[in-house]
Design a protein that fits this description.
This protein is mainly alpha-helical. It contains 6 helices and 2 strands. It has one domain: Winged helix-like DNA-binding domain superfamily/Winged helix DNA-binding domain (Arc Repressor Mutant, subunit A), CATH 1.10.10. Helix content is about 60%, strand content about 5%. Strands 1-2 form a two-stranded antiparallel ribbon. Helix 1 packs across helix 3 and helix 1 packs across helix 4. The longest helix has 23 residues. The model has no long low-confidence stretch (mean pLDDT about 90).
Length: about 150
């Protein structure tokens, strides 16, 4: 499975909203400017996130986007599922393993195990975790200065 540009931009967009929504709704033009992403492309990311109940739009002259849930309640798995579909390495069709040979059973089991571990990791990382990582990175970079 490969995470597309939509999936990567969705994570950037949501982190932007999470970091700046305390000043009011965040506009797509602000996100586009700060992240160097085209605003028309962001529309393709925002629509499914809004439909899924991850983002909420506030209309009007002071409008923009805010998170629909707390950052600790939004996992990377939620975001990936909305924009990329569920993580899957094997067909979703029920496989009749008893009719397959040993090599198939072993390799199929490995793919299922890998899928399970990736889903567990994606589920364990939330926007709140990314906010914390961002703040740590910012504080370290603010200590780095040149004389």
């Amino acid at each position: 499975m490969k995470i597309t540009t939509k999936g990567r931009y969705a994570l950037q967009l949501l982190l932007e909203v999470a970091l700046h929504q305390n000043k009011g709704p965040v506009t797509l033009s602000d996100i586009a400017l700060r992240q160097g992403i085209s605003q028309p492309y962001l529309w393709h990311v925002v629509t499914p996130l809004t439909t899924a109940g991850i983002l909420r739009v506030k209309r009007g002259s002071q409008g923009g986007y805010v998170l629909a849930r707390e950052p600790k309640e939004i996992s990377i798995k939620d975001i990936v599922n909305v924009l990329e579909g569920s993580v899957s390495f094997v067909s979703s069709e029920k496989v009749q393993e008893e009719n397959q040979g040993s090599i198939f059973k072993v390799t199929h089991g490995v793919w299922l195990e890998l899928e399970e571990k990736i889903v567990k990791i994606l589920s364990s990382i939330t926007l709140a975790d990314l906010i914390e990582r961002y703040r740590e990175t910012e504080s370290i970079e603010s200590l780095n200065f040149n004389i």
